[in-house]
Amino acid sequence: MRALTVVPLQQDSLSVRDVPDPTPGAGDMLVDGIAIGVCGTDKEIAHGDYGWAPPGSDYLVLGHESLGRVRSAPTGSPFAAGDLVVGVVRRPDPEPCGACAHGQFDMCRNGKYTEHGIKQIHGYGSQQWTVETDYAVKLDPRLADVGMLMEPTTVVAKAWGEVYGVGNRAWFEPRTVLVTGAGPIGLLAAMVGVQKGLDVHVVDVVTNGPKPGIVTDLGATYHSDPVDQVVKTVAPEVVIEATGVTQVIFAALEGTTPYGIVCLTGVSSVGRRVTIDGGSLNRTMVLDNNVIVGSVNANLGHYAAAAGYLAAADEDWLRRLVTRRVPLEKFADAFAAQPDDVKVAITLQ
Which of 71, 111, 304, 335 is the most exposed place for a label (fewest CB within 10 A)? Predict the structure, then answer.
């Protein structure tokens, strides 16, 4: 079968190659791959920035934003042939640490976890793949065109869980949220905010293309002014930060209302310096009881929540997030950014 592969840490090694057909183990399902989403992590691995091949392999199959259809499932499992499924990305470390032992492998303490398509386990970017039934999630059949959005939605589900986990230490009844960045994570974070009944604002630099209309049709407000101005206008109680841009992060930290919560989901590039008034920032955060929290990855509870968020969303709106679909053999097109890209998917069949 054909699969999208890379030689970790080697630039220009991204290719489609023949790989052995998968053989399901005890408790595994055999799944026909439908599509994978392409994100910044995939591009960084393809660039040679990081990535780890499985033991004994000199290549890594990419693809952690999965979507597939069950070909066969173990007798007595909750899955059946024809079910639409995604595979969970992370697996707990083998020791395991306390967090992994309690099913919170997204919060692994020792870093010995593994991840499909990223770290020591082949990803889902192949025409067939296997997955343990305990690490698969069934999707609503109506999501067959957009189910590759599941993994980024799990990231968002965790971020919102972190916000409410922090907020509920005291009386917490947020009304206004600002999402910084209108990429897939930002748009899905806005979607969840709307589902929660919040007044949602999204800020991004673009003024044309699909993003402003996608936000408006969601029932949120789109802004393209400088973020420091938007923060002053909106005065958010919650910020979901999805850019990783340092200037945006600090503007958000300084602009929330008292008891404000900023959840960082974007990963910043290293080597970029900004000048800030650290004393003023510290004073604001202490005197206003503000909180900043980082959030990455997701556990099984977040996957279940994400499936619910997607099932509750408007299907036509979700389809607008998948702006390009590229056949597997033309994979390079998916890694070449286009101005109107939101989410690019690679079709596997």
Answer: 111
Residue 53: pLDDT over 90 = yes
Does domain 154-294 match CATH 3.40.50.2000?
no
Distances in whole angstroms, Cα of residue 228 to Cα of each of 121, 178, 181, 205, 255: 41, 12, 14, 12, 7
Span 141-164, pLDDT tens digits: 999 999 999 999 999 999 999 999
With beta carbons less than 8 A apart as the criterion, state whether 91 and 105 touch: yes
Asked whether the domain spanning 154-294 has the same topology as the one spanning 2-138+314-347, the reply is no
Name the pTM for this structure.
0.96
**Residue 271 pLDDT grade (very low, low, confident, very high; cuts 50, 70, 90):** low
Pairing of strands 238-241, 176-180: parallel
CATH of domain 2-138+314-347: 3.90.180.10
pLDDT digits 0-9 by tens, 187-232: 999 999 999 999 999 999 999 999 999 999 999 999 999 999 999 9
